[in-house]
Amino acid sequence: MSVARKIYSRASRKALNLFGDLLHFAGADKSTYQYARGSRIIVYHGICLDNPTRFNTLFITQKRFEEHLKAYKKHFNVVSLADYYAGRFSTDRFNICLTFDDGFANNYHYALPLLAKYKIPATFFVTAIGATKYDILWNDLLSIAGRLGPVKFEFDNELYYKSRYNKYIGADGVSLNDKLRKTGFDKKAGLINLLDILTGFREETTIKDYWQQMTAEQIRELAASPYASVGSHGYYHNDLCNISAGEAAQELTQSKYYLEKITGTEVNSIAFPYGSYNEEVAALSKTAGYEQLLATDFNSPQHHADPALRERLTINPFISTANQMYANIRGKYY
Questions:
Q1: Is 225 helix (H, G, I), strand (E, B) or coil?
Q2: Which of 86, 93, 210, 254 is deepest in the core (most CB within 10 A)?
């Protein structure tokens, strides 16, 4: 895309979002909700108290999340994941299903109390990283290193330099994140061990909300809530398409067992890490006992016919609550 087109596209999105906000404040958006029909599964990740995009551009504040919940309560019919799959929908309101990925402890601390307050259900997709000696996902630590870490460091016999966008780039121009996404957990564990020392992030107690994973006890309490259910998000948060079929099958089975042992309930849903899946991963998931398979975007139009697969829309932290609600109905952003 040319620079001119990028500028035009950015300006166009800003104008459309401003128009959406004006409609909302003028009260002219009532018909949008009144006549909206259909359904959508929405994806959240982290909830924090302030500065949500400091390390992760998928976080929102607790205040903004509560705004979302108020809007859902007022304008939508919110259903559980089980009801979504069963097709138990309202015929006179747009139906919304809420999900959370990654298993952050902030979900337990900030999201769960608000869900209980507004009596809104959600499903939390959690990794099994707690079954290992690690308590942080590799990509979260790499993002933190982009802010707190050194200008350069050597890893796996290669030197990486921090770019102007706080990404670590190798001599070949490929980011460390992209390289590790294509590996299993062994190399990622090596990175965690290294960056744990180089960043000193554990000493920064004010940033725990940005990385800390739920403990087994928190997962257990979450699952016990009438407003929460628990699903799998993989074992190590590996991209299941980038590891061997045997490794993927093992992760799918082990993460299911881990969560079922903690919660005491059957875990029959999985949200693919990074939304990444293919025919083989979908088949392996079904074999492992998962009946609800959640991606972001489908790989093929044919997957709309698969009763197990569902698409989801990831929330956008950079737009207003009103514009997020409009996007939920449209199923896309400007």
A1: coil
A2: 210
Tell me which residue range forms the domain holding 198: 138-205
pLDDT per position as a tens digit, 169-224? 999 999 999 999 999 999 999 999 999 999 999 999 999 999 999 999 999 999 99
Biggest CA–CA distance in the chain, Å, is: 60
| pLDDT for the residue 28 | 54
Phi and psi of 38, rounded to 5°?
125, -160
pLDDT tens-digit series, residues 91-125: 999 999 999 999 999 999 999 999 999 999 999 99
Both 287 and 262 in one domain: the answer is: yes
CB atoms closer than 10 angstroms to residue 61: 17
- Is beta strand 168-169 parallel, antiparallel or unpaired with respect to 152-155? unpaired
SS3 content of the chain, % helix, strand, coil (to 5): 50, 15, 35
| Residue at 102: amino acid letter | D
Of 205, 228, 247, the one marking the end of a domain is 205
> Environment class of residue 286 by beta-carbon count within 10 Å: exposed (0-12), middle (13-18) or buried (19+)?
middle
Q: Is residue 114 part of a domain?
A: yes
Instruction: Give the tokens for residue 129.
Output: 């990283």
DSSP state of 302: G
User: Which pTM was predicted?
Assistant: 0.93
**156, 209 contact by CB (below 8 A):** no
Among 159, 176, 205, which residue terminates a domain? 205
At 305, list the tokens.
């016919």
Q: Which two tokens stand for residue 326?
A: 């409009």
Q: Clarify whether residues 95 and 142 are in a common domain.
A: no
